[in-house]
Amino acid sequence: MNNNRRAFLKFGVAGAAVLAGLNQLLKISPHEFNEKLTRRVIGTGRLGPEFARNRAVMPKANGLVGLDEEIELKDWMLKIDAPGASQRIMTIDEVKSLPRVEMTTELMCVKGWSEVVHWSGTPLRHIAPPSAPEYVGLTTPDESYFVGLDRESALHPQTLLAWKMNGAPLTSEHGAPLQLVIPVKYGIKNIKRIGSIRFTAERPTDYWAERGYDWFAGL
Ligand SMILES: Nc1nc2c(c(=O)[nH]1)N[C@H]1C(S)=C(S)[C@@H](COP(=O)(O)O)O[C@H]1N2
Ligand SMILES: [Mo]
């Protein structure tokens, strides 16, 4: 083992001990500690706060644009477009075969409510082209709800294509079979019932931006 590695390990062990001590001192649960640490030390740049799984609740269905028609789940397919590539079609089973992530994060609506939800899905970045263009646009199958994302937020490790909510498959009103979960953004960007995803150099239009909300809608 070289010196750098030894020094790193020593620091790592000492660091963990200090954190454990602090945690004890503050008399708060590990997830709360983790959340505070994330918010205060790491700031807005990296991972957003995660919560204990038992904090998760089922939000009521909010926002049903693009969900009013019943769809046959067995006929659902995800269309993916990227510059210079022909359209890729994925079935839900293909999406579910990608590396899976579980996380408990907060869904925050611009109307003032927020709920903690446990999600299962795969990071959107797993379907991104190698050198992704600047933006990503997502629409419902009927194209009546649509969101635009900046590349950094879209490729963020906590931005998921999710098929389970609190351990159960998504219901129709919560966006079955696939919804976007993007904790770095307000609820408006968490599009339910994704039909198509487009990687693009031009900034995509956005349902709520067209109605006066901030296009970026970041938290
Ligand atoms: N297709 C679609 N997705 C949508 C919406 C919508 O109207 N249609 N509303 C958004 C808004 S404003 C919020 S706050 C969340 C609400 O998700 P929920 O129904 O799971 O609470 O969904 C988002 N995704
Ligand atoms: Mo919302």
Question: Can you tell me about this structure?
Answer:
The protein is α+β, with helices and mostly antiparallel strands. It folds into 2 domains: 1-44; 49-211, Oxidoreductase, molybdopterin-binding domain (Sulfite Oxidase, Chain A, domain 2, Alpha-Beta Complex), CATH 3.90.420. The protein is built from 4 helices and 10 strands, in the order ααββαββββαββββ. It has helices at 3-26, 30-42, 92-96, 151-154; strands at 78-81, 88-90, 101-108, 114-123, 135-139, 146-150, 160-165, 168-169, 179-181, 196-200. The strands form 2 sheets. It has a 5-stranded mixed beta sheet. Strands 3, 4, 7, 8 and 9 form a 5-stranded antiparallel beta sheet that branches. Strand 1 and strand 2 (88-90) form a beta hairpin. The chain starts with a helix and ends in a 19-residue tail after the last strand. Mean pLDDT is 87; it is low at 38-44. Bound molecules: ligand MTE and molybdenum atom. Residues 62-63, 109-111, 187-188 line the site of molybdenum atom (MO).
List keywords for this structure.
single chain; binds ligand MTE; 2 domains; binds molybdenum atom; 21% helix; Sulfite Oxidase, Chain A, domain 2; globular; alpha+beta
